[in-house]
Amino acid sequence: MRVLVVEDERNLCDAIARGLRRKGMAVDVAYDGPSGHEMAYVTRYDVVVLDRDLPGMHGDEICAALVESGALTRVLMLTASGTVADRVEGLQLGADDYLAKPFAFDELVARVQALGRRATPAAPPVLSVGDLVLDQTRRVVTRGGAPIELTNKEFGVLEELLKARGGVVSSEELLERVWDANTDPFTTTVRVTVMTLRKKVGDPPLIETVVGAGYRVPEPVVVTPGGPQ
């Protein structure tokens, strides 16, 4: 999941980013309105955690612009004021959720995860192909019932490949969806991560390389009675 945190209180912004990264999310940060607005348009984020009172450009303007653009990005609005009137106003602007400061970090994580599931075409919480099962909510992967220990990046790559339901996912798409803006776009990190992921997933191999296009996990062919042999 790719998340943008726009918050002018740098310590709070960095703390939120660190916490979300520990939960396996790719997180970028912006410390003012204009930077957050630009980043939200350059990169397709699943969720934007957006402070309402920002210097340079108000959070309300950023939220309204995102909604008007038709982007699938979900907006979690943060504010120092938690009155009913403020919550109503924020939601009327198009925010998908609203959280007043101070907040419990566990609640923030739960809300971001819930919004992330709504940011893309609906996928079941448990993804599977053959005997491989990935539980997005519990962040658990098994094959043949045996657990597989994956790093956050390996889990993210496998999750994106399974979400594609047999489709090809390019290295550029994986880099955008699983890593953050600080990653060198010319790095070999995607290839290396896929290589180690293949080893951990085991045999028979599930991840295919499509030369010049990317990677995919083919869906099993189901042969119906009377169908083609």
UniProtKB/TrEMBL annotation:
Top-rank lineage group of the source organism: Bacteria
Keywords for the protein's UniProt record, in alphabetical order: DNA-binding, Phosphoprotein
UniProt domain OmpR/PhoB-type: residue ranges: 124-219
Swiss-Prot/TrEMBL GO biological process terms: regulation of DNA-templated transcription
Domain Response regulatory as annotated: residue spans: 2-116
One Pfam family this sequence matches: Response_reg
Keyword DNA-binding: yes
Modified residues (4-aspartylphosphate): D51
Keyword Aminoacyl-tRNA synthetase recorded: no
GO MF entry, a single one: transcription cis-regulatory region binding
GO cellular component entries: cytosol; protein-DNA complex
DNA-binding region location: 124-219
SMART domains: REC (SM00448), Trans_reg_C (SM00862)
Protein name: DNA-binding response regulator
